[in-house]
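Lecture notes, unit on binding sites. The following record was shown on slide 14. It pairs a sequence with adenosine-2'-5'-diphosphate.
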Amino acid sequence: MKKLEFQNGDKLPILGLGTWKSEPGEVRKAIVWAIEAGYRHLDCAKIYQNEKEVGEGIAIAIESGLVTRKDLFVTSKLWNNAHKAEQVRPALESTLKDLGLDYLDLYLVHWPLAFKSDVTFAKEPEDFHTYSEVPLGETWRAMQEVKSEGLAKHIGVSNFNQNKLNELKEVGGQQPEMNQVEMHPFLPQSGLVDYCKSHQILMTAYSPLGSPDSRSDKHENDPKLLSNPIVKEIATKHGATEGQVLIAWSITRDIAVIPKSTNKGRIKENFEASQLELDAEDLQKLRDIGISHRFVDGSFFTGDNSPYTLSDLWDDH
Ligand code: A2P
């Protein structure tokens, strides 16, 4: 398994298990199946509301001798309602308690925007904090603190565009070591990838399969990534599945990738994508796929009822 390397030499297995939308009642088993299949990188977040059960899965795997804590690379994310300086450490401690761990390998600021502390999903203007109330720099300094205390070995961000990353440069000190964003052949993020590479920021691709379980009325007309004809053609050529092609695409670009699955067969299938090598012709075809689409569009945090706009989130707005 390919690994990405942090500046201090620590390594991150490039393929991890995603847990967004992994249902309680399913995710405990999924974690154990994934570790049995060879996964050592687990991607979690407070807001996925399943960290306790993820922790139970990790505990089962450790107690049964499958792995030790040191073998695992565990990521979690600070939710938007805990961005004030004094909230960051307690939020991380709560995640650690749920996961049953005493440190995280990587802690990320989940989104570059802040909610009031009693709000889980902000809907009304009064649910949000503005940047003047809770500047991103305040949150980032607190993230630097939890790293220096050893509660998180590495720190980074998620859903940050180049402007927001530049703002963190102004704060000084430890800069983000990771930026986790949506990425797949419909959204290759080339500009952001170049920026992160030139600033020694590693990247992780979320929704690498196009989040096919996000189908609500709002998403009815979204293009379908897994059944795209180019993806299918490349899968047939290699005797692989469409999911494996999409995962291998990230691995080839040296970008960590975290497909979510709670299905034993697909967990194993996705892990085996690390054996699939795409060639130059495949990569060219995927570059020319001709569809541009963001599945997680950020509209739920922006608009008339929010002090934030899409340009706070994405470079192309
Ligand atoms: P399931 O958990 O039943 O396997 P993403 O990581 O882009 O958010 O996509 C996750 C969704 O894709 C889940 O609905 C998951 O369902 C499904 N999925 C995971 N692996 C595969 C695969 N190899 N082929 C098809 N669908 C998959």
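Take-home: The pocket of adenosine-2'-5'-diphosphate is lined by residues 18, 207-213, 226, 241, 243, 259-263, 266, 269-270 (CB under 6 Å).
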